[in-house]
Amino acid sequence: MQFVLALSPDSKEPIYVQVYESLRQAIMEGRLRFGEKLPSTRELADGSGISRFTVLRSYELLTSQGFIETIVGSGTFVMQKIPEVAQNVVPAGFDTASLSVFAQRLLHPEIEAVDAELFDELNYGAPSVDDLPLKPWREVINKCARFQDKTLFQYVSDPMGYSHLREAISAYLIRTRSVKSTPENMAIFSGAQSALDLVCRLLLDPGDCVAVENPGSPFARRTLKMHGANILPARVDSEGLVVKDLERRQEKIKLVYITPSHQDPTGVIMSMPRRLELLSWAQRTGAFIVEDDYDNEYNYYGEKPVPALHGMDDQGVVIYLSSFWKVLFPIVRIGFIVLPPQLIEPVRKAKGSIERDLPLLEHVALTEFINQGMLERQIKRLRNLYARRRAALSHVLTRRFKDHATMPGVSAGMHMIINFDERFTAEDIAASAQTAKLPMVGTENYYMDEPRSHQYMIDFAHNTEADLTVMIEEFADLLTRTLSPRRSSTLPT
Length: 493
Prior knowledge:
The chain is built from 19 helices and 14 strands. By secondary structure, the protein is α/β, with parallel strands linked by helices. The protein has three domains: 15-78, Orthogonal Bundle (Arc Repressor Mutant, subunit A), CATH 1.10.10.10; 129-372, 3-Layer(aba) Sandwich (Aspartate Aminotransferase, domain 2); 377-488, Aspartate Aminotransferase, domain 1, CATH 3.90.1150.10. The strands form three sheets. Strands 3-10-9-8-7-4-5-6 form an eight-stranded mixed sheet, with helices on both faces. The chain has a four-stranded antiparallel sheet with strand order 11-12-14-13, with helices on one face. It has a two-stranded antiparallel sheet with strand order 1-2. Helix 16 (374-401) runs parallel beside helix 18 (465-481). The longest helix is centred in the C-terminal third of the chain and has 28 residues, at 374-401.
């Protein structure tokens, strides 16, 4: 089945939003009729020249709003009854003064603008659908769906999450990340963002100062701004966050948010001396550290992962935050935090009020998946796979650009940073990458000030070595043609 989507390369909307809007509009206008079958995600992706993951995300959004439904073994169909969907705009004449201060912050343009940071080109940092362990996960789900343990049917549940899953994750974190984790000091959430949101609710009042890495995660900044935080940028150098920037501040810093295992987006791994310096500063000042263990699974070429900050903390200042997004999304959607002793009871009471009932079957299955060693086998498989793809990308980039671009020596994560020199314009780089279908985006929106216009992230996790080589070759050829004959002759072929 062929379906033409109205996608614009010049739109500021993410591709998945454009796909969603195109299909939603077709349903609302009757061009897609009730009960009509939609093309499969693979068919729509191939026919539109976009990733299958993008289509999956769009279908999930349409499903959650009641426009479509998927029937196993049959396909995806337009629902018989169109839902009454609230528009994501403020109606004309509506007085926002009737909203809470929190709601008014949500409507501020600065908060809304961050939604564009869901980069389709980077596949949202999730693994490729083709690389997911679908068969073993299906087997585990089928086994656990029998619910042989009758105690699982009790209505009363622990707001901190399924106890056996907390035991399994705790054991995993102890042996792989040296985290001081126990089932008692861990809480499970529907995702890492909801975990961070609750931490903000419990620790921050409007106007409290929070230090974040610059450049740093726009997702984290959005959550912090939602809670009225006064965000202070802290530089990132070759060793990670510059602690001296925190020491120079006159403001009282309540919280520091960092990604020390693989700094987002630069990829820098925080050095051991810098980790000790940050812990010492936090212990002296009474600040909390939110350690987002982003991309900790992927270190290549024999590099030994640095232990998590949480395992080095003996004063209870580190809140450890992580998820299995980089390994198992979208089949598993959970986040978790490991808490200092003083925050265990506040988190327990808060979760008991706002997020008590979590998907039990998924949690029981994930427990089995971890305890049987399947999680670590999947990580090892992906680490080897991504290492080969990263090496191929590095090789072709070095050969084609040599002295005209630089790449940091960090070998971790699922994307690579590349800095082009000034001979190329940002417009030519973007146009060449788009034509070559190279999964590459600029890092400008990660910076709070003085963004680097010629710095880009290239995803290497979702394409084969051969495909990466072809895309870079075409990208380099196209980019070379944008230069004058005299200057382009200096570029290698």
